[in-house]
Amino acid sequence: MAGFSSDDDSNGFHDGDGNKTAGKVIKCKAAVVWAPGEPFMMEEIEVEAPRRLEVRLRILFTSICHTDLTAWMGENESQRVFPRVLGHEAAGVVESIGEGVEDLRPGDRVVPVFNGECGDCAACRSSKTNLCCGFAVDPNRSVMRSDGRVRFYCAGRDGVRRGVGAAWNAANVDEGSKVAIFGLGAVGLAVAEGARLRGAAQIIGVDINTDKFVKGREMGITEFVNPQDYTKSVHEVVRELSKGGVDYSFECSGNLDVLRQAFLSTHKGWGLTVVLGIHPSPRMLPLHPMELFERKMVASVFGDFKPKSQLPDIINKWIIGANKINLDGFITHELPFTEINQAFQLLSEGKALRCLLKL
């Protein structure tokens, strides 16, 4: 369960032994959006017990990102399913497990992710992809895979580590390289952090919100470009600053016009553009096929990390270890869960990177 919800203490849930709710329908709080763009309503919902290979979590902390904004506004036609319980960035503990779950037990502290890994299919056994054949991210899915049903109910109705990995895995940024990042939200700044840790010599940040430049400098960005300050194309500015073009560019805004600028900002011959932004528009890529003879483009899902087998090592080495990723720098606001509408307002106005919601 990855949603903006929390078990009520009256349910009698206890970490570890003595779990009184296993196998039962429970009630908890959730922020439900009933129609596109409407304010979230704090509702009491019912959550079914986990079925085979499913896990029910007690969410303790959660945050929101621009993907949630897109879903909230109903901008993507395939995701206009309401009412909804949004959310895919959270931390919590295992409340109960379903049949066949062998490596988790009630009380385990976990971080749910949207991209699964079964460990057995051809994709999971391959080092060339992190998209599991059975549990890869599917943004259009609004029901459980096992039976095509939901597990959340409200008033009788259904409620339905990306940037760093992109720099390390999808681009494999090397020491001394030049990087340009288009869009300095949380994902873009995570790319900057990943590039900094890899020893990039020049990291150029591109955004029209100059308030983001202060935080960007903390994350390792060396130079900033505000497109509104120039009469020439942004890719020309970036290529001048990098003396011929950057080695790697990252498109983190979800804007196709920006994607073209990011693509053209790379160096001819070996430049690589990594697509990270969510593009709900039906518009096609703004590229001529011949342009792909000069530069390359790839897309990255979940930072190309295999979530189950690789994330623990990343946490131990880069979060707990000596060379730490600056995670605290991404949390710009903290609010109680009941103030979720304010959190969405801060994000939509460009005033927050990540607002931590405490349940």
From TrEMBL:
Keyword hit for Oxidoreductase: yes
SUPFAM superfamilies (UniProt xref): GroES-like, NAD(P)-binding Rossmann-fold domains
Pfam family, one: ADH_N
InterPro entries referenced in this protein's UniProt entry, alphabetically: ADH-like_C (IPR013149), ADH-like_N (IPR013154), ADH_Zn_CS (IPR002328), GroES-like_sf (IPR011032), NAD(P)-bd_dom_sf (IPR036291)
Essential cofactor(s): Zn(2+)
Keyword Repressor attached: no
Domain annotation Alcohol dehydrogenase-like C-terminal: ranges: 186-308
Reactions accelerated catalytically: a secondary alcohol + NAD(+) = a ketone + NADH + H(+); a primary alcohol + NAD(+) = an aldehyde + NADH + H(+)
Domain Alcohol dehydrogenase-like N-terminal as annotated: residue spans: 54-136
Keywords: Metal-binding, Oxidoreductase, Zinc
PANTHER family the UniProt entry points to: ALCOHOL DEHYDROGENASE, ALCOHOL DEHYDROGENASE-LIKE 4
Family assignment from sequence similarity: Belongs to the zinc-containing alcohol dehydrogenase family.
Quaternary structure, from the entry: Homodimer.
Name the record gives this protein: Alcohol dehydrogenase-like 4
Biological source species: Platanthera guangdongensis
